[in-house]
Amino acid sequence: MTRITTDIFISGGGVAGLTAAAAFGSAGFSVVCVDPAPPVTEADAAGADLRTTAFLQPAVATLAAAGLWDRLAPYAAALQIMRIVDAGGEVPDPRLTKDFDAAEISDLPFGWNLPNWLLRREMVARLAELPNVDFRPGIGFARMLTRQTEALVTLTDRSTLCARLVIAADGRASPVREAVGIGVRTMRYGQKALAFAVSHDLPHNNVSTEVHRSGGPFTLVPLPDRNGKPASAVVWMESGPEVARLAALPTPAFEAEMNARSAGVLGPLTLASRLTQWPIISQIADRMSGPRTALLAEAAHVVPPIGAQGLNMSLADLATLLDLATANRSDLGSPAMLDSYHRKRHLEVQARVTGIDLLNRASMAGSPALRDLRARALDLLYSATPVRRTLMKAGLGLR
Ligand SMILES: Cc1cc2nc3c(=O)[nH]c(=O)nc-3n(C[C@H](O)[C@H](O)[C@H](O)COP(=O)(O)OP(=O)(O)OC[C@H]3O[C@@H](n4cnc5c(N)ncnc54)[C@H](O)[C@@H]3O)c2cc1C
Q1: pTM for the whole thing?
Q2: Mutate to test the pocket of ligand 1, among 51, 57, 237 (most ligand atoms within 8 A of CB)
Q3: How far apart are CA 165 and CA 292, in angstroms?
Q4: Which of 44, 144, 169, 261 could bridge across to 153 with cysteines, CB 3.0–4.6 Å?
Q5: Which atom of ligand 1 is the closest one to the Cα of 312?
Q6: Is the pLDDT confidence value at 1 over 60?
Q7: Cβ 33 vs Cβ 130: under 8 Å
Q8: Residues 206 and 169 sit within 8 Å (Cβ to Cβ)
Q9: Which helix (H) or strand (E) holds 310?
Q10: Which helix (H) or strand (E) holds 169?
C-alpha cells in the first residue's frame, strides 16, 4: 500500500474532530480524519446522538471560519437568559429563581443550541466540499511512531500515513493519548445523564433553565418549535441506579417523574424523543500535547454537562491550535508550537474543570442543610452585580 503524506492527521470524527477537520481544511491544510464509527446523521437512526450542544458566543467565529456557521444558524435556537432555579426545599417547588440575562453584558444572546445529530450531518457535508480533507469513516487509528519532523501513523485497515501534526480528538479514552503516554486524572461521581427532548405548552422564550434539587441539575435548553409546539432539550443528571430506574419506567410513569423534577417551570412536559444515557465524569490530561501531537476536546478534558462548557472549551482549544498553525505554517507540529499550545490552554482548562466539578458537587447535594447553603450561595453571588457580570463573562469565556 502506498503511504500518503498529510499536514494533519485527526483521530476521531466526533463533533470536535469533524469541526477540527473543517477548520484546518478551510485554512488550507491537508487533513486526513478517521473514525471507526461512521457518523449518524439522522435523528431517528439507531445510535443517533440525541444530545444538543449550546454553542456560546466565542464558538461562532470558530465555526464561521470553518465554513460551518452559515449551515448551522438556520437550525439554531437562541439562548438569551440562563435561569437557575433552586427547588431544594422540603417540597420540590421552586424556592429561588435567578435570571442571568445576556443583555447585561452583550448585544447578543449567550449562545445558540443545536442537535448533535444535525451538527454531524452539516459537518460531514462541509467536509465533502473541501478537496484537501480526506474523511475516512469506518477506519480507526491503530498506532504511531513519532520522529523529529513527523509522525508515522498506522490505521486499523493497516494503511499508513505521515503527518506533521496529529490531533487526538478520539474521546475520553483517547487511543492517541495512550499511544503518546499522556496520563489523566479522573473524578467519578457515580452519576449519569439522561438526554432527551420534550414539548410543552408554555413558550421557553429563549430561556435555558437549570433546576437544582439533588442528584444533579435538571436542565431545559430551548429548541426550535416541533410540530407547532414549543420544545426543549433536557439533560437530567442523577445517580447511576436512579437513572437506570427512570429509564426503565413506562412513558406515563417517566413523564410523571420528569414533571415532578422539572418543578413545573415550563408547565407540563411531554416526552418527544427516546432517552439516551451518558456517564458523567470529570477528567483532565496531564498535558495538552506530546511529540507531534495535540490533544483536543474530550481527549484532553471531560466535564459534567453544566453551563454548556464541554464542547465550547474544545472549540477554544481548536481556535488556539489553529492560530498557532496559521501563524507559522512551516512550524506545524514542532515542539515549540505544541509547547505553546499546552501553555496557552492547560491552566484555563484546569480552572474550568475544577469550577465545574465544584458546581456539580453542589448540585448533587442531598442533605437539607447543604441544599440551604447552596441556595444562600446562589442568592449572594447573584445579588452582587459586578460578581454576577463577571460570572456571566467567565461562563462565556470572555474577559
Ligand atoms: C448529556 C451531555 C450534554 C452536553 N451538552 C453540551 C453543551 O450544551 N455544550 C457543550 O459545549 N458541551 C456539551 N457536552 C459536552 C460535549 O457533548 C462533548 O464535549 C463532545 O460531544 C465531545 O466531543 P468529542 O468529539 O471530544 O468526543 P466524542 O464525541 O466521544 O468523539 C470521539 C470520537 O473518537 C472516535 N474514536 C474512538 N476510538 C478511535 C480510534 N481508534 N480512531 C479514531 N477515532 C476513534 C469515536 O468513535 C468518537 O466518534 C455535553 C455532554 C453530555 C454528556
Answers
A1: 0.93
A2: 51
A3: 5
A4: 144
A5: 11
A6: no
A7: no
A8: no
A9: helix 310-327
A10: none
